[in-house]
Amino acid sequence: MTSGGKYPLKNNFSVFINYPDRTTGISGLPKQPNGYYKEYVHPTPDIPRPGPQRIIVGQNGEAYYTNDHYKTFIKIR
Fold first, then answer.
1. 54 exposed, middle or buried (CB, 10 Å; 0-12, 13-18, 19+)?
2. Sequence spans of domains, the chain
3. Does the keyword field hold Translocase (predicted)?
4. Does the active-site annotation cover 42?
């Protein structure tokens, strides 16, 4: 990711849209304009397709990790 290379999976380096949760109406990440966040697929061992792990990076450099396909986020930077 930091080298600028792409991991050859769908959605890698694509715009992440911070949709609100269907039940609570609350977004998982701080609210920002569309296009603010990019998502990167974090490879999951033994899964040949994109697994549930993602890293989401904001335009100001903040970064979040999710291991459950956007249900929860951990701020990592």
1. buried
2. 23-76
3. no
4. no
Encoded tokens for 71? 């249900």
Catalytic residue among 6, 69, 71, 75: 69
Assigned token pair, 19? 């949709």
Q: Is 62 a catalytic residue?
A: no
β-strand partners of 66: 54
Catalytic residue among 39, 40, 57, 66: 39
What's the CATH code, domain 23-76? 3.10.450.30
Q: What global pTM score does this model have?
A: 0.80
